[in-house]
């Protein structure tokens, strides 16, 4: 039996109602779909743009089943959904991506083991399950390492940088005294990411790689298409396609990559959802990542990934709202070629993503200069 196709007019369910869910819901509405979401926060960013928002924990399988019964397919906007919840949904309607994909991705050690077994290139790494094992791993990997919680963590949380095995005990305590993955520090030239969409019928669409810049382990800005050598672009695209097809993803998969100073490309992490580094697709591409997510999980024909004009984004963190006077919205809205995207979050906190700016230009570098000027005008 061929996978179910969900046509416009149907109902899409979402596990998670954060900003990614909000933007996916808006894209779904443009295509004529109804949308329901489940999120622990009754005031989540998606609540005002969906038809129904169920307030329940991600571990509430009964609530997830109620959502599933009302939907023609269900997807997710955050990867920390418990596997039993995904399995409960799948008993009633297609869960895209499914529990098999999340089982690999949710645990960093399991994810890296799967990638290594598949022959995908990784930097040196080890798992540790105690402070003593952590010290041994740091020593074996050369001293300077990044220690990451095996599960959870986002936007720089759940990880600690160390420079020697002497810091193992402190790092173990900081990360909650639970399983960790230890990664050797690498000589990075740059960071990039590739977004792949795959529908249940096997159709695949790959966006051009994005070039990403992080500050304090949070994405600060991103360019699309990434101004990178053709050989790097080809390698990154081939890796991303291979990983997505090997995992048999139904929906979106973003592959975060490292470009080393010696020119080699290594896999960093995987994300089975829309991604911050591809927000620029809303202004750069014929099909945004959010519309593509809807098309993929509904098993509809995938849209064109052509970049019709280079674009860049800058993230807006809560720090800006905490400054005297707050963001200067009127100034940035008067700037040509620039768009303001806000996520509807009521509470601003340091480091919390409240929105982003996007800009188009004649080149990726021109778009970056424009969006950075807009960020300055906004008060950053």
TrEMBL record:
Q: Which reactions are catalysed by this chain? A: 5-amino-1-(5-phospho-beta-D-ribosyl)imidazole + hydrogencarbonate + ATP = 5-carboxyamino-1-(5-phospho-D-ribosyl)imidazole + ADP + phosphate + 2 H(+)
**UniProt KW Protein transport keyword:** no
Assigned keywords, A-Z = ATP-binding, Ligase, Lyase, Nucleotide-binding, Purine biosynthesis
Q: In which pathway does it act?
A: Purine metabolism; IMP biosynthesis via de novo pathway; 5-amino-1-(5-phospho-D-ribosyl)imidazole-4-carboxylate from 5-amino-1-(5-phospho-D-ribosyl)imidazole (N5-CAIR route): step 1/2
Gene3D superfamilies from the UniProt entry: 3.40.50.20, ATP-grasp fold, A domain (3.30.1490.20), ATP-grasp fold, B domain (3.30.470.20)
Which Pfam families does UniProt cross-reference here? ATP-grasp, PurK_C, RS_preATP-grasp-like
Output the InterPro entries linked to this UniProt entry. Answer: ATP-grasp, ATP-grasp_carboxylate-amine, ATP_grasp_subdomain_1, PreATP-grasp_dom_sf, PurK, PurK_C, PurT/PurK_preATP-grasp, Rudment_hybrid_motif
Q: Where is the signal peptide?
A: none
What cellular component GO annotations does this protein have? cytosol
Molecular function GO labels: 5-(carboxyamino)imidazole ribonucleotide synthase activity; ATP binding; metal ion binding; phosphoribosylaminoimidazole carboxylase activity
Q: Please name the top-level EC class of this enzyme.
A: ligase
Residues the entry annotates as binding ATP:
108, 148, 153-159, 183-186, 191, 214, 268-269
The Gene Ontology biological process annotation of the record reads: 'de novo' IMP biosynthetic process
Q: What is its EC number?
A: 6.3.4.18
Q: What interactions and quaternary structure are annotated?
A: Homodimer.
Which family is annotated? Belongs to the PurK/PurT family.
**What's its job?**
Catalyzes the ATP-dependent conversion of 5-aminoimidazole ribonucleotide (AIR) and HCO(3)(-) to N5-carboxyaminoimidazole ribonucleotide (N5-CAIR). Catalyzes the ATP-dependent conversion of 5-aminoimidazole ribonucleotide (AIR) and HCO(3)- to N5-carboxyaminoimidazole ribonucleotide (N5-CAIR).
Query: In its UniProt entry, what is this protein called?
Result: N5-carboxyaminoimidazole ribonucleotide synthase
- To which species is this protein native? Myxococcus xanthus (strain DK1622)
Q: What is the organism lineage in this UniProt record? A: Bacteria, Pseudomonadati, Myxococcota, Myxococcia, Myxococcales
Gene symbol here is purK
